[in-house]
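Hey, I was hoping to borrow your eyes for a little while. I've dropped the whole record in just underneath, so have a look:

——
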Amino acid sequence: MTLRLSFRSVLSAAIIGCGLFGATVAQTQDSPARRPAAATVVLPSKPIPYTSTVRRRAPRPRPAAPAAARTAIPTRATTATAAPAAAPAAVAAVAAAVSPETTAPAPSPVAASSAAPLPPADLEAYVDGVVRDRMARDHIAGVTIAVVQNGQVVLKKGYGVASLTDRRKVDPDTTLFRLGSISKTFTWIALMNEVEAGRMRLDTPINIYLPEKLQLKDQGKKTPVRLRDLMTHTAGFEDRALGQLFERDPRRERSLDQYLRQERPNRVREPGLLPAYSNYGAGLAGAALANVTGQPFEKTIADQVILPAGLTHTTFRENRPWRDDLPAPMAPVLAAGLSDGFRWTSLGFQTEAPEFIGHVAPAGAASSTAGDMARYMTLLLNGGTIDGRTVFSPRTSAMFRTPMYRPAEGAPGWNAGFMDIPLPGGHRGFGHAGATLWFHSNLVMVPDLGLGVFVAVNTDTGADLPASLPATIIERFYAPRPEIPAPSRITQDEARAYEGQYLTTRRAYGGLEGFIDRLIGDATVRAAADGRLTLTLDGKSSQWTATDQPDTFAPASGSGLLVFQREDGKVARFFSPAGAAAFERIGFPHQPGLLTTLAVLAALAALATLVGAVTRDRREARQTPTQARASLLQTIQAILWLVALVGVGMFASGAGDLAKVFYGWPSGWLLSASACAFVATALTIATLAMLPVVWRGGRRVDSWTSLRKLAFSCTTLIFLSFALLLAAWGFLEFWNA
């Protein structure tokens, strides 16, 4: 199968869906054994009335605070006024008193970083060189960038074009780029405002906040999904994207409620156990937010975050025709500044139709400018206040910087929906990355440097620049890379314990999409001669060196940790340095090499069967009636297996067109291949049942020779082995695309 290499290289980044480089969760804080009692609440047997979700608790006694602080700290962001700089301690004290729930201490007053400020001229010269080099190397049409530090905009700039039609240049203040999963950070801010106001609680089952039609079924799971699980991407959902995450035709757009009802993923594990990035989970959180506030999601986000923060060129609405059953479209003045999305082809840049994602807006529908994202980063770094307005509380700000959940010590975590980001020089950041089909973006804040970096591109080939530029800037100005990597602390024999094939938890778990995800979602770990580990993931290889901590490896170049986890003394999984998922060790039946080997053997056996049917002479054609029927069945199987393999090959040949894969799923080629393989499997089982009669035969002159019987039996066993393997991979489930 050539599908694995050709399809993985172009599709794996987009299957990360709207985004991301996720993160993980802390066993020390939130393992199943240490969950608070609220986690065991029984799911309601009927819908909970809306009034019960918004009723305020009786006020609790509050500690006395200075009058200035009492007047400065609101409970809702939309009417807030920032506290005077003279009373930061009172701000923190009152915030601690009004917060109904918290897992993080109130932060100390926000202050300018003691780090040396970035020199604007040097920064611009450096970024200009990096960006223009990447634009030429990776064929990027347009880039927009903002860098802030200590409340000041250090760099705000646009590069390249936003439209080839009118040769419109990228303007950092007026050109809107798709943000992808950075959109989720707005959703989490609004949700945390509801938590602060006492209308939602992190450890309450999410069904309490959802209308009945959207409530999750238990599907055999013992523990309900909580709001906290959605924010940390540990709800236990499988992840499906093909054919539903993006829409090209605005007439096919659905409301958020309709999408969540029609595209329910399976719950494949108990919540809180392992990370698996979920756009559906973020959509569900947005629906809960809309239900609790009694307003459409887009209006809630605008009222609680966008307008109070003064983001005049940011919106969750999309540029499409008006429809009564959908939220209002994007304002014309903003639509005029939208950047086109581009694909790089052998003939140059090709303008692509916009990808719509309003049906799951909380996960990825936002568009914004570099200028607005500079304000947004300033807000996040300044503890939730900007221009004298409080958008979210200091306690919420602390939670955005503090890991809420980690899967293992040292592994990246989720900070109340924000990624926990390791950076060069031991610095730690928080933020989020994002992607649509044609846009890629990244948002990184580094509190100890007072620094925020936003970068976005409008071309499908440009993912590397947003992913690497924030760390590159920090490395250049604050943390030069050591020239010689540290030596390995373990031998090659010790490193072999980690070798093997691993498969991401962020995937579909059945059907044809599950089959594709198994092909593109694997990672390989190999032990080098010097004791280092080589990790191959998404077609890229990196080297890792053992640290003082057991089962923990540091990169030979870069930042972050590769953390393995054992079960019964054996290495069972590792946690991605990017944090979007865990990677679990896979057994022999799910090794990609085994699938490739059996596919080749099945193809050769099918060809040999057809050649034999055409070239066999009259003497060799002597056979009993049962043998004749068995021969006919096997010939039909051979044809079906070849058609199935050709169908997969045709699908693989077109997998380079991401829009075609996403919009055209399920592929007709793949469906036909799966159906043919299913029928061939049924015929193979029937042929297997006929083997004893085939071998018994009749008189020697009326029966097959022993050699032909052996060839027939071997072919049957090859077809059967291939069929069983395809069933284990989900390929035979053509009804479950």
Remarks:
- Residues 1-10, 12-109 have pLDDT under 50 and may be disordered.
- The first helix runs from residue 3 to 15.
- The chain has 23 helices and 22 strands.
- The chain has three domains: 3-113+178-477, 492-586, 590-729.
